[in-house]
Amino acid sequence: RHHLEKKRYLVIIHGISSETILNCLRASLPDDNNGSSVVLMLDTESEEVAWHANTLNKDGINGIHMLNRLDEKRSGELFCSRASRKEMSDVKEDMSKYDKIVYDITGGYPLAIVLLAGLLRFKEKPGQWEAVLQLLRPGPGMEEAQGVEGNKIIGSVLPKGRRRIEWRMSSTTQSNLSTRTTLERVFWASFEDLPNDLKSCFLYFAAFSKCTSMPADDIVRIWIAEGFIKPQKGKTMEELGYNYLNELLLRCLVKVEEEANDAYINEEFSVHKRLHGFLQSEAREAGFIDVHDTYDIFVPPSVRRLSFMSFERGHTAFTNKFRKLRSFISCVDEQDQRNDSQGVYQKRRHDLKFLCRSKFLRVIHVSGLGIRELPNEIGDMVHLRYILIGSMDLEKLPSSIKSLLNLQTLDISETRVEEIHPSFWKIKTLRHVMASKLSLPASIDEQLDELQTLWGVKPAQQGEWDQRDCPLHKTTKLRSLFLDGFEQSKHGAALESALGKMSFLANLKLEGDEIPSCVFTAQNLRYLETIDIAGKIKWPEATSDVRRIRPNLVMLKVYKDSSEEAVPQHIQNQL
C-alpha cells in the first residue's frame, strides 16, 4: 500500500476464488481517486466473486466482461490436435464428427479440451471413445452410461467379430462427475483412468505448491525412492520413470515449464494451477500426503508423507513423533532472513531433529530453509533412499551418513559441503550424487555399478591419482559427470584412462587446467550428448571427423577464457 500510495496503477490478478481474499486485497490497495484500476481474471465457476468485486466499483459501474471461450469448430480443432496419434492413422480420419460432443462436454474451455484429448489418446476407437464421451456428456448422456453390473459404470460396444471393449469407472467417481464443474468432471475422469502406479506418481505433485515446478530428474528419483517404479528387464528405473512422466505429459495432466539448466539438460514439470487444487484434495482425502502452508498446525502422528510450504513464523517445533513417516518435503521460497522487532535482519534457523524417530523414512527433500547441520541420528534411518538439502548454511555432513546402506540419491549441490566420510563411497546402492565441490577420495574400494550421476566433485587437494586405480575407475557406468579443479600433471592420465571406460556417458562437464584430448577423440564416448569444458584445450586435427566420433552430440559449450583460440572452424562446421 505504501509503495503504491499517490501513484496511478493497474493491477491484473488471476486465480482469486474467495470473496475473503478479495476483501483483503482491496484493503491493501490505496484509493486516491486517480483512475487506478484492478483487473480480475476469473473462471466462470468464480462468478460470485466477480459480482462481489463489481459491488466495490464506484458510481454503480458494471465492470464485468464475459470473455468468449472457443466455439464448436475451434474446440474440435484443438481436441483433434491433442488426441490424434500419427501411428494410429488418426490424421487420415475425419475427426470433425467429435466437434459437437467435445464442445458439449467442455463448453469450449481449452484446459478441459486438452484434458479430454489426453484421456482419449490412450483409448481404443471407436468403442472406448464412445463410452467415455457418453459418460462425460452432461444431462441424459450421463444416465445412459450407467450400467447394471454391480457398482460399476460401464461403457461398451460389440464390434462385429471382435471382443467386447469396456471402459469402467466406479460409482463413486460417477457421483463426483454428476456434481462437479466441467473442468472437474474431465479431470476426475482422467485421474481415475490412470493405472495405480502412475496414479501414485501423479499424486506426488500435490506435495509441492502450485507455483513450484519440479526438475524431471528430482521427481523421478523420488518416485524410485518411494518404490513406485518397478524394475523391468532392459530398462533402468530412471528410463521407466521418464516414460511415466511422458505419459502424464501426453495426458495433459502435467506441463513442461523449463528445458535448460546450464549444460545439463533437465526439463521442469508442474501441474496446471487450475488442476492443482483438485490434486491436493484427492491426495488429502486418500491419505496419501498431508500438505500444510504453516508449521504450527496439528499433524497426526500416523502421517505417512508430510509436506510444508511455508515457515513464516521462524523456527520449526514439532512435538509429535512421526513413527510411520515415509517422506518429508519442504520446498519454500528463500525466507532465511526476517526483521526482528528492531528492524534488524536475522537468520532463521531450522533443524530436522524431529525426524529422528521416523525410522521408516525414505525421502527427505528440503530447500529454502536455514539448516546448519543434520542430526547424527540420520544414520539410523536405514530405509532412507533419497536426500536433497538446499541450504547454503550447511557445511558438514555427519559421519553416520556412511551407514545409509540403501541410499540412492544424495543432492547437496545447494550447500557448502566439501567433505564426506570416505566410507560413504562403499554404499553400493548409490545412483546419483550431486554436490557443489565435493572432494573425492584418492581411491574407492567398491565398484559402484549403480552410480549414474556424479556431479560437482573434485579431486582431493593433496595427492595424485593412480592411473590404474583412481576413484573414477569404480564409476564406469556413469551417465553424467561434472569434475572440477583437476590438474593435468596430477590427474590427467588417470582421468583419461577412466573416461575411456565410460561407454554410457551422456553429459560431461570438465573444469581444469587442461582438458584431455580424449573428450573429442575416444571412440567409446559415442553416447555423449552435452560437453561443457573450461580449461586449455587441445583440439582434434582438421582431418578428424568429430561428427562421426560424436554422433549424438547436441551441445558443445566452451568458456571464452578456456583456450588461446576460439573453437576451430572445422569443428564448428562439423557440428
UniProtKB/TrEMBL annotation:
InterPro entries, per the entry: Apaf_helical, Disease_R_plants, LRR_dom_sf, LRR_R13L4/SHOC2-like, P-loop_NTPase, WH-like_DNA-bd_sf, WHD_DRP
Keyword Ribonucleoprotein in annotation: no
Domain Disease resistance R13L4/SHOC-2-like LRR: 356-529
GO MF terms, alphabetically ordered: ADP binding
Alphabetical keyword list: Plant defense, Repeat
Occurrences of domain Disease resistance protein winged helix (ranges): 208-277
GO BP term, pick one: innate immune response-activating signaling pathway
PANTHER family for the chain: DISEASE RESISTANCE PROTEIN RP, NB-ARC DOMAIN CONTAINING PROTEIN, EXPRESSED
Protein name in the entry: Uncharacterized protein
